[in-house]
Amino acid sequence: MRVNGKKVGDKPDPGPAFGLSSGLANLKVTVFVGIRAQQKEKTRRTLIEAAFSQLCANRSFSNLSLREVAREAGIAPTSFYRHFRDMEELGLTLVDEGGLTLRQLMRQARQRIAGGGSVISTSVQTFMEFVENNPNIFRLLLRERSGTSAAFRQAVAREIQHFIAELTDYLEATTQAPREEAYIQAEAMVTIVFSAGADALDMTPEECKALSERTISQLRMIAMGAEVQNRKRHESLT
């Protein structure tokens, strides 16, 4: 094109190629960010598993050091802080994960019960299997429940309350008992089961079997007493 007799070139048209390259660049950034996030989550999970693996009958979480956990996870100690603020935050995460794992197993037990089977015996068997397969997780919950850290004690108490609340919901729905009575029954049952789990940690398989049977009998007595209480309450209203 000519303007006042002079040739003026047209502005370069970015065309579709420019838009395509820009889109590819954005896609690469998105993929890179996604990969980094996955890697970070994988390392975080490795740290959690490394901490769990070092817990045992003779070693509590308070005895673990940041360097030991980092070494077990295969990372530099300074990299630890990219995932957790300090060891206390890692410990609280362990408590949360331990409680969640247990609650998920007990939910699965209730699903099995829905398909047929004894409520109490299935629940006790599931709990004892959890203790047998995850002794380090259960030890953590037991020790930190009465440990020196207020934050840990509160975290464990919160997990136990979640456990009691879910059992209360189940009892209220299946027995038609008032919420308060269902809660009292659930609290008593959870207390007995946790105590049995603590004893099971140091028992032989034969001793654990006898303990499970005894625990089932204790829970059935509580359930029978709750049923009688519920029946008397209904009779008094008629």
UniProtKB/TrEMBL annotation:
InterPro entries listed in its UniProt record: DesT_TetR_C (IPR054129), DNA-bd_HTH_TetR-type_CS (IPR023772), Homeodomain-like_sf (IPR009057), HTH_TetR (IPR001647), HTH_transcr_repressor_FabR (IPR050692)
Keywords, alphabetical: DNA-binding, Transcription, Transcription regulation
Residue range(s) of DNA binding per entry: 65-84
Residues forming coiled coils: none
MF terms in GO: DNA binding
Residues of the HTH tetR-type domain: 42-102
Superkingdom per UniProt: Bacteria
UniProt cross-references to PANTHER family, sorted A to Z: HTH-TYPE TRANSCRIPTIONAL REPRESSOR FABR (PTHR47752)
Record's protein name: DNA-binding transcriptional regulator FabR
Native source organism of the sequence: Aeromonas caviae
